[in-house]
Write a structure and sequence with these properties.
Layout (H helix, E strand, L loop, with lengths): L1 H20 L21 E7 L3 E4 L3 E3 L1 E6 L4 E4 L2 E4 L5 E4 L4 E4 L3 E9 L2 E10 L11 E11 L6 E10 L6 E9 L9 E7 L4 E4 L21 E10 L4 E12 L24
Length: about 270
């Protein structure tokens, strides 16, 4: 009897399955559970590398910035760069290349996407002082021309420089003074010179473009001055100040058509 009941149950089950295949109500199927996607990593803070540094006078340092993400990964970013004191650490904001130009304490700040990071810098003075004659300036002038971006006046230093015979010198920082333009930030360079004269020419462009705010605010004088901080092959540092005329002309032939504040001067192999 039990076998007959079992046989009857199997027949009824098979009939039900056949009815479903002929358009009847299909059996309920369970969908697999979909796993929730992990939330995207987000930036939680900004860091600077190196996060602190101690330099001797005339030495250089390059900074980098990273976003630290919520998953602990790091993403390289290109922030805005600032030095708290360009008389201690002259910082090129286009490439975060800094030069220690004075003894003391300064900070480097990076800003990116509403995040801020700060790195302290200590510069220790050097007792070696180089002779001003260790850097030879054969000629210097300041070219005034129409800016290709605004049509207003812009200025490009034109300089021929060299080291004395059988010597080498590295140009670290240049401070330009043009009457009527106010305070011009120090320009970190890092160019190496031998005893063969080199033309250091080109517009100071990008963040270093000396662009006037209006047509009536052009240079108010006829001469410009540059003060150059340099180091010779012995490691001694020195300065050299020269003046030259402001001359009117066309766009410098070195113009590249875009921001390039990371270069010292166009047409010259700068390490800065």
């Amino acid at each position: 009897m039990r076998c007959d009941l079992t046989r009857s149950a199997l027949v009824l089950f098979a009939a039900a399955m056949l009815a479903c295949s002929d358009g009847g109500t299909p059996p309920v199927s369970l969908s697999p559970t979909t796993a929730k996607e992990a939330p995207s990593a987000r930036a939680v803070r900004l860091i600077i590398a190196p996060d602190s540094v101690t330099l001797t006078l005339s030495t250089t340092v390059s900074f980098a910035a990273y976003e630290v993400m919520s998953d602990s990964s790091r993403v390289s970013v290109v922030p805005q760069w600032f030095s708290s004191n360009n008389e201690i650490l002259a910082l090129n904001p286009a490439n975060a290349h800094g030069v220690a130009v004075g003894a003391g304490y300064a900070t480097v700040t990076a800003r990116f996407d509403n995040l801020v990071a700060v790195a302290p810098v200590i510069v220790i003075a050097s007792s070696k002082v180089a002779s001003a004659d260790a850097l030879v300036i054969d000629s210097f002038s300041m070219l005034e021309y129409g800016s290709p971006t605004s049509g207003q006046s812009a200025y490009a230093p034109q300089m021929r420089a060299r080291a004395p015979a059988d010597h080498r010198v590295s140009v670290l920082v240049m401070r330009f003074a043009i009457p009527g333009l106010g305070n011009i930030p120090a320009f970190g360079c890092g160019a190496n010179l031998a005893d063969v004269p080199r033309d250091l020419f080109g517009e100071v462009y990008g963040d270093w473009l000396l662009e006037i705010g209006g047509a009536a605010q052009q240079a108010s004088g006829t001469s410009a001055t540059v003060t150059i901080t340099f180091v010779d092959e012995s490691g001694a540092t020195g300065t050299r100040t020269v003046s030259g005329p402001i001359v009117h002309g066309g766009l410098p032939t070195s113009y590249s058509g875009g921001p390039n504040g990371g270069a010292c001067f166009h047409g010259y192999g700068s390490s800065g």
